[in-house]
Amino acid sequence: MKIIQGIKKTKESFVFKDSAQLKEPLVLVFGNRYMLESDDIYAEVKDLFPDGHIVFGTASGEIIDDKVLNDSVVLTAIEFEKSTIMVKRSNVKDHDNNEINLGESLMTEFPKENLRHLFLISEGSTVNGSALINGIEKVKDKNVKLSGGLCGDDDRFERTLASYNENPKEGEIVAIGFYGETLEITSANFGGWTAFGPERIVTKSKGNVLFELDGKPALDLYKTYLGEKAKELPKSALLYPLSVKSTEESEPLVRTILNIDHEDNAMILAGDVPEGARVQLMMSSVDDIVHGAYRAAEYAMRGRKKNPDLALLISCIGRKLVMDQRTEEEIEEVKSVIGEQAFISGFYSYGEMAPFNNQNECKLHNQTMTLTLFSE
To answer: What is the DSSP secondary-structure string of 52-65?
Structure first.
């Protein structure tokens, strides 16, 4: 596996630490939304990698090595020496905003033989990530793992962009299939958030839209808890996500509020909130988040035969807001576990995709550190 990385600052060209000739590389480009809106961004990367498979995604902060950057674009180009990749894309508008159908359709485009892993870079501001994952899980083989994330837009929640071999645009979902018997790919996630306050029942919801808790408007209850911070919604909601437990036996999922519907007095979350689920508010500290990143890395490394050559990290914008000036500490913790040999890239997101520890089926998470580790 050959890897080179570069960084682009505003009104500057990409700067690369090392140089190498790569053949048909996978080129992952994560960056600030304003910079990826440039009409020239695809042409610029295409000039650097004429035969590259170029995948873009907007970020709420860019990760490269053990650094977290803002207002930049980070690029990681990977040539797989013994393995192959296939990239497919679709748009929610092509499927009448039905993410389940989109997920099913996208998955069927990938030949099954020797497919080891699927990595998703998805529109983050309008897509129901839970439904997208459910569609893929309906048709994919159980031995094929799935991970990825929802694109971010800092804490603005205005629009997110993604693309494959074209300028980034809204509504795009890009799937990267990894093929080859020599590939070792593992993924894991962990949060570090603690539930507090009374447990409430979801009495009215539809998909990822939450209307009522205990028969009362959910938004009114949430505003009561936030107090003065309610004026800063939806940004302030990132500091107090929801723990959602669908059944007594199920693992609790963390859900971030992406937007507010004042007309219907409802909250739009990154993933599904089924009726009958039990919900609690959550909070965290910097130390808890850092420890959560360490735990995620431990889970991702568990049982691996080789140390990873590449680590794709997707962490949540809510974690970044809590950590503030100490954000890089969670990346440093990950690096201390996976080793100095691994190239690290990634972004801060509106949602993370990975299975729970020791499970096969992928879920949408919020407020977690999610790792996908690669070696050949």
So the answer is: -EEEEEE-SSEEET
Q: What is the pLDDT of residues 142-183, one digit of tens each?
A: 999 999 999 999 988 899 999 999 999 999 999 999 999 999
Nearest to 349 by CA among 272, 262, 223, 254: 254
Name the amino acid, one letter, at 216.
K
The residues near 179 (Cβ < 8 Å, ≥ 6 apart) are 83, 84, 85, 86, 113, 114, 115, 116
Rg (CA), the chain: 19
Neighbours of 214 (CB within 10 A): 13
Identity of residue 242? L
- Burial zone of 262 (CB within 10 Å; 0-12 exposed, 13-18 middle, 19+ buried): exposed
pLDDT category at 359 given cuts 50, 70, 90 is confident
Q: Where are the domains of the chain?
A: 2-190+287-375, 194-282
Contacts of 274 (CB under 8 A, 6+ apart): 202, 205, 246
pLDDT at 198 over 80: yes
Q: What pTM does this model have?
A: 0.91
Residues 6+ apart with CB under 8 A from 358: none
Q: What is the pLDDT of residue 226?
A: 85
Q: What number of CA atoms fall less than 13 Å from residue 323's CA on the CB side?
A: 27
Type of residue numbered 229: K
